[in-house]
Amino acid sequence: MRNNTLGSLIWLRLVRFTNLSNQLSNDFLKQFNITTAQFDVLMQIHVYQPLTQTELAEKVTVTQGGISRMVSRLEKEGYIVRKQDWKTKTISLTKKGEAILDEAMPAQLAFQTSFFEDVLNEEETKTLYRLMTRVHKHSQKKELPPE
After folding, report:
1. What's the pTM?
2. 124-134 b/e (C-beta count within 10 Å ≥ 16 → b)
3. What one-character-per-residue DSSP string does 4-43 give?
4. Spatial contact of 57 and 67, defined as CB atoms under 8 Å apart
5. Averaged confidence pLDDT in the chain
6. What is the largest CA-CA distance in the chain?
7. 104 neighbors 39 (Cβ within 8 angstroms)
8. Collapsed DSSP state (helix, strand, coil) of residue 82
9. Residue spans of the chain under pLDDT 70
10. pLDDT the model gives residue 76
11. Considering 26, 35, 98, 108, which has the largest number of Cβ atoms within 10 A of its Cβ?
């Protein structure tokens, strides 16, 4: 299995980096009693509130079933509130949810930024961002090859 292409090796590095980054972020965010996935969900609610659970699921990397459990957990913790408006149920942050984000966001952003700033100079960071943006945009248009 030594026939890896450079593209497949880059993909493997990205997957390994993402997994390690998520593990380290989960450990880092324990001080705020939230997980990386919860942080992401709270951030998305903060930016787009009020929004439906379906809209939220489209914006995060959690499955529909997972988002349902997470929303219930975040509501139980007092970070979010669900409001019924006729047929539509929307999700918004509570004051407690805003407070945890105000506390955790600067620390988490600094922690994530350190993965790059500790090893890359400014020009390398900009180049990596440009390249990853291009790959990401292309991947959004990518279709599966015919069977």
Report:
1. 0.82
2. eeeeeeeeeee
3. --HHHHHHHHHHHHHHHHHHHHHHHHGGGT--HHHHHHHH
4. yes
5. 91
6. 59
7. yes
8. strand
9. 1-2
10. 95
11. 108
